[in-house]
Amino acid sequence: MSRRRKSRGLPASVLLVVVVLLAAGGYWIFSQGGREGSLRTVEELDPSLYYSNANSLRGNTYRINAEIDSSLGNSPDKGRLFSITLRDASKAGAPVILPVLVPPALGSLTIQKGQHYLMKVKVGDNGLLSVEEAHKP
What is the 3-state secondary structure (H, E, C) of the chain? Predict the structure, then answer.
């Protein structure tokens, strides 16, 4: 009676499946982190500085955590103007309301009243906040 040789280790097909699953999981994690990862390093907008002198902030880029308050206007050439309420600043008491311009390049965003967005905004030459990126959290 001959003995069968016991195999040690996993078959190559099982190892291949494990490697493929790990690679797919890593890709998914890095692709999901890329959307909000760009906002992680951007400084948060201080509304008191913006209200005191928006011109001093010209050209700078900031992050805001906003809820859409209402639509103020729409221009096919310049974009859509919204009033937003800052979510983080409402802890101080009265809600902080700011105007933001969503340029035509971001026309694929379907923005409605009450929606929550994380936005990357740039302070324009006239002091108006222009949205560069917007993501729902």
Answer: CCCCCCCCCCCHHHHHHHHHHHHHHHHHHHHHHHHHHHHHCCCECCHHHHHHCHHHHCCCEEEEEEEEEEEEEEECCCEEEEEEEECCHHHHCCCCEEEEEECHHHCCCCCCCCCEEEEEEEECCCCCEEEEEEECC
